[in-house]
Amino acid sequence: MVTLKGKQVYLRALEPEDLEFIHAIENDESLWELSHTQTPYSKYLIKQYLENAHQDIYEAKQLRLVICSKDDEALGLIDLFNFDFKNKRAGIGILIQNKANRGKGYGKEALSLLVDYCFLQLQLHQLYCNISETNTTSLRLFKNEGFVEIGVKKEWNHTPNGFVNEVLLQLISD
């Protein structure tokens, strides 16, 4: 049985009540480098996004879930994107919003839950992610989940500190 509930966290669909949470994440300039965002998002646009979040992954080609603690605190987001049913693959990304909640295993458990869901429920063949080489915490998280580095895109992203490489990782189901 596939479940989106773990010992420390569970994953749930977006709700209209997540407006402030999503708005805070999308407008946190310290995270823009991760999401390749360059401009702020209005609450109006995020509200519209939430109103359409009910779309099936096969229709929307993406799935965003909220990572919640056992006491229902929203901790972060985990996303599937570029969902390709024909080729049975999707990109995956994760964010734990509050730095105080990082390093506690929440991201590890959320990633494990979503990987199992992708392979067992969605019947995907592979998952991939693109991570800046400077984001050593995320690289370690994905590698510990079995993702394998398959390439490096040289000087791929421009940051305030200059160009940085982006690492491409992949996990193929057994």
Structure description:
With 174 residues, this protein is of the alpha+beta class. It has six helices and seven strands, in the order βααααβββαβαββ. It has a domain of 116 residues: Aminopeptidase, CATH 3.40.630. A seven-stranded mixed β-sheet has the order 1-2-3-4-5-7-6. Strand 3 and strand 4 form a beta hairpin. Helix 1 crosses helix 3. It is globular and about 40 Å long. The mean pLDDT is 90.
Question: Brief description of this entry?
Answer:
This protein has helices at residues 19-26, 32-35, 43-51, 57-60, 106-121, 136-144; strands spanning 9-13, 63-69, 74-84, 89-96, 126-132, 148-159, 162-172.
Keywords:
6 helices, Aminopeptidase, globular, 174 residues, acyltransferase activity, alpha+beta
CATH topology call of the domain at 9-124:
Aminopeptidase
> What is the top-level CATH class of the domain at 9-124?
Alpha Beta
> By helix and strand content, what is the structural category?
alpha+beta
Mean pLDDT: 90
Alpha-carbon Rg, integer: 16 Å
Cα separation of the termini: 17 Å
Q: What's the tally of helices? A: 6
Q: Segments where pLDDT lies below 50 for 5+ residues?
A: none
**Biggest sheet descriptor:** 7 strands, mixed
- What percentage of amino acids are in beta strands? 35-45%
- The residue fraction in helices comes out at 25-40%
- The rough form would be described as globular
Say which CATH homologous superfamily of the domain at 9-124 is assigned.
Gcn5-related N-acetyltransferase (GNAT)
Helix-strand pattern: EHHHHEEEHEHEE
Domain N-acetyltransferase: 9-170
Keywords: Acyltransferase, Transferase
Protein name: GNAT family N-acetyltransferase
Organism: Winogradskyella maritima
